[in-house]
Amino acid sequence: MRRSPTPLLAALLAAFLAWPATAAPERQDARDPPAASAKKKAAPKVPKRQVGKASFYAKMFNGRKMANGKPMNPNDDNAASRTLPLGTKALVTNLENGKSTVVTIEDRGPYVGGRIVDLSPASAKDIGLEPKQGLATVEVVPLEVPQPDAGSVKVGDASTPP
Protein backbone atom coordinates (compact mmCIF):
# COMPACT_ATOMS: atom_id res chain seq x y z
CA MET A 1 0.00 0.00 0.00
CA ARG A 2 1.28 3.47 -0.91
CA ARG A 3 1.63 6.32 1.50
CA SER A 4 -0.06 9.63 0.84
CA PRO A 5 2.32 12.48 -0.22
CA THR A 6 0.38 15.00 1.84
CA PRO A 7 2.65 14.99 4.96
CA LEU A 8 5.77 15.40 2.77
CA LEU A 9 4.24 18.30 0.83
CA ALA A 10 3.10 19.94 4.05
CA ALA A 11 6.67 19.73 5.45
CA LEU A 12 8.17 21.20 2.27
CA LEU A 13 5.63 24.01 2.25
CA ALA A 14 6.34 24.83 5.90
CA ALA A 15 10.10 24.88 5.26
CA PHE A 16 9.64 27.16 2.25
CA LEU A 17 7.49 29.61 4.19
CA ALA A 18 9.98 29.67 7.07
CA TRP A 19 12.91 30.50 4.75
CA PRO A 20 14.45 33.91 5.64
CA ALA A 21 13.50 36.78 3.34
CA THR A 22 17.17 37.80 2.96
CA ALA A 23 18.24 34.47 1.47
CA ALA A 24 17.84 35.66 -2.11
CA PRO A 25 17.86 39.27 -3.32
CA GLU A 26 14.68 40.52 -4.86
CA ARG A 27 14.89 40.79 -8.62
CA GLN A 28 13.48 43.67 -10.56
CA ASP A 29 11.88 42.94 -13.90
CA ALA A 30 13.78 44.63 -16.75
CA ARG A 31 10.49 46.10 -17.99
CA ASP A 32 9.82 47.86 -14.67
CA PRO A 33 11.11 51.42 -14.28
CA PRO A 34 13.90 51.83 -11.72
CA ALA A 35 12.90 52.62 -8.18
CA ALA A 36 12.36 56.28 -7.35
CA SER A 37 15.11 56.09 -4.76
CA ALA A 38 17.74 55.04 -7.33
CA LYS A 39 20.57 57.53 -7.66
CA LYS A 40 21.23 59.36 -10.91
CA LYS A 41 24.47 58.75 -12.78
CA ALA A 42 27.11 60.98 -11.24
CA ALA A 43 28.70 63.66 -13.40
CA PRO A 44 32.43 63.28 -13.99
CA LYS A 45 34.56 64.80 -11.25
CA VAL A 46 36.32 67.99 -12.23
CA PRO A 47 39.26 69.30 -10.21
CA LYS A 48 38.35 72.51 -8.40
CA ARG A 49 41.84 73.98 -8.37
CA GLN A 50 45.21 72.85 -9.67
CA VAL A 51 48.64 74.27 -9.00
CA GLY A 52 51.60 73.28 -11.13
CA LYS A 53 53.78 74.24 -14.07
CA ALA A 54 52.49 75.84 -17.26
CA SER A 55 54.23 75.81 -20.61
CA PHE A 56 53.14 77.12 -23.98
CA TYR A 57 52.69 75.70 -27.46
CA ALA A 58 55.78 75.74 -29.66
CA LYS A 59 55.58 77.38 -33.11
CA MET A 60 55.48 73.96 -34.77
CA PHE A 61 51.93 73.45 -33.41
CA ASN A 62 50.50 76.56 -35.14
CA GLY A 63 47.67 75.43 -37.41
CA ARG A 64 47.74 71.80 -36.27
CA LYS A 65 44.45 70.19 -35.36
CA MET A 66 43.65 70.19 -31.64
CA ALA A 67 41.58 67.58 -29.79
CA ASN A 68 38.36 69.50 -30.51
CA GLY A 69 39.09 69.43 -34.27
CA LYS A 70 39.94 73.11 -34.69
CA PRO A 71 43.36 74.32 -35.86
CA MET A 72 45.58 75.77 -33.11
CA ASN A 73 45.67 79.56 -33.43
CA PRO A 74 48.56 81.11 -31.47
CA ASN A 75 46.57 84.35 -31.02
CA ASP A 76 43.52 82.71 -29.40
CA ASP A 77 42.91 82.00 -25.71
CA ASN A 78 43.19 78.21 -26.15
CA ALA A 79 44.94 75.82 -23.82
CA ALA A 80 45.51 72.10 -23.26
CA SER A 81 44.75 70.12 -20.12
CA ARG A 82 44.79 66.39 -19.39
CA THR A 83 42.12 66.61 -16.68
CA LEU A 84 39.66 69.40 -17.53
CA PRO A 85 36.90 68.61 -20.06
CA LEU A 86 37.17 70.15 -23.52
CA GLY A 87 35.28 73.44 -23.68
CA THR A 88 36.02 74.36 -20.07
CA LYS A 89 36.71 78.05 -19.40
CA ALA A 90 39.45 78.36 -16.79
CA LEU A 91 41.25 81.15 -14.99
CA VAL A 92 45.03 80.73 -15.19
CA THR A 93 47.05 82.81 -12.72
CA ASN A 94 50.83 83.10 -12.77
CA LEU A 95 51.76 82.69 -9.08
CA GLU A 96 55.11 84.37 -9.63
CA ASN A 97 53.67 87.74 -10.71
CA GLY A 98 49.89 87.56 -10.05
CA LYS A 99 48.87 88.08 -13.71
CA SER A 100 45.80 86.15 -14.90
CA THR A 101 43.97 85.25 -18.09
CA VAL A 102 40.90 83.23 -19.00
CA VAL A 103 41.47 80.33 -21.41
CA THR A 104 39.32 77.73 -23.13
CA ILE A 105 40.47 74.11 -22.89
CA GLU A 106 40.50 72.91 -26.50
CA ASP A 107 43.28 70.31 -26.52
CA ARG A 108 44.81 67.47 -24.50
CA GLY A 109 48.23 67.72 -22.90
CA PRO A 110 50.80 68.58 -21.76
CA TYR A 111 52.46 65.20 -21.80
CA VAL A 112 55.54 66.23 -19.85
CA GLY A 113 55.72 65.33 -16.18
CA GLY A 114 54.92 68.08 -13.67
CA ARG A 115 53.04 70.29 -16.13
CA ILE A 116 49.31 70.88 -15.77
CA VAL A 117 48.51 73.19 -18.70
CA ASP A 118 49.85 74.20 -22.12
CA LEU A 119 48.93 77.75 -23.12
CA SER A 120 48.71 79.43 -26.50
CA PRO A 121 51.51 81.98 -27.01
CA ALA A 122 48.98 84.84 -26.61
CA SER A 123 47.69 83.45 -23.29
CA ALA A 124 51.25 82.83 -22.09
CA LYS A 125 52.11 86.46 -22.86
CA ASP A 126 49.00 87.63 -20.95
CA ILE A 127 50.29 86.03 -17.73
CA GLY A 128 53.88 87.15 -18.28
CA LEU A 129 55.29 83.80 -19.42
CA GLU A 130 58.07 84.64 -21.86
CA PRO A 131 59.68 82.19 -24.32
CA LYS A 132 63.07 82.44 -22.57
CA GLN A 133 61.40 81.39 -19.27
CA GLY A 134 59.64 78.38 -20.76
CA LEU A 135 57.73 77.48 -17.59
CA ALA A 136 55.83 79.28 -14.85
CA THR A 137 54.10 78.12 -11.69
CA VAL A 138 50.38 78.68 -12.15
CA GLU A 139 47.01 78.08 -10.56
CA VAL A 140 44.22 76.80 -12.83
CA VAL A 141 40.64 77.27 -11.62
CA PRO A 142 37.66 76.14 -13.76
CA LEU A 143 35.10 78.89 -14.33
CA GLU A 144 32.58 77.11 -16.60
CA VAL A 145 32.56 73.35 -17.17
CA PRO A 146 30.44 71.88 -19.99
CA GLN A 147 28.14 69.10 -18.80
CA PRO A 148 27.45 65.86 -20.70
CA ASP A 149 23.67 66.55 -20.76
CA ALA A 150 22.92 68.40 -24.00
CA GLY A 151 25.40 71.23 -23.60
CA SER A 152 24.52 72.79 -20.26
CA VAL A 153 27.27 74.52 -18.31
CA LYS A 154 28.18 74.15 -14.65
CA VAL A 155 29.48 77.34 -13.10
CA GLY A 156 32.80 76.81 -11.33
CA ASP A 157 33.96 78.01 -7.94
CA ALA A 158 35.98 80.95 -9.24
CA SER A 159 32.99 82.58 -10.95
CA THR A 160 31.25 83.41 -7.68
CA PRO A 161 32.49 86.25 -5.48
CA PRO A 162 34.12 85.18 -2.20
TrEMBL record:
Family the entry assigns: Belongs to the RlpA family.
Keywords tagged on the record: Cell wall biogenesis/degradation, Lyase, Signal
Segments for region (Disordered): 24-51
Biological function: Lytic transglycosylase with a strong preference for naked glycan strands that lack stem peptides.
EC category: lyase
Gene name in the database record: rlpA
GO process terms (BP): cell wall organization; peptidoglycan metabolic process
Protein name: Endolytic peptidoglycan transglycosylase RlpA
PANTHER family: ENDOLYTIC PEPTIDOGLYCAN TRANSGLYCOSYLASE RLPA, ENDOLYTIC PEPTIDOGLYCAN TRANSGLYCOSYLASE RLPA-RELATED
Biased composition, class Basic residues, residue ranges: 38-51
RlpA-like protein double-psi beta-barrel domain mapped to chain residues: 51-139
UniProt cross-references to Pfam families, sorted A to Z: DPBB_1
Natural source organism: Ramlibacter algicola
Entry EC number(s): 4.2.2.-
Leader peptide range in chain numbering: 1-23
GO MF annotations in UniProt: lytic endotransglycosylase activity
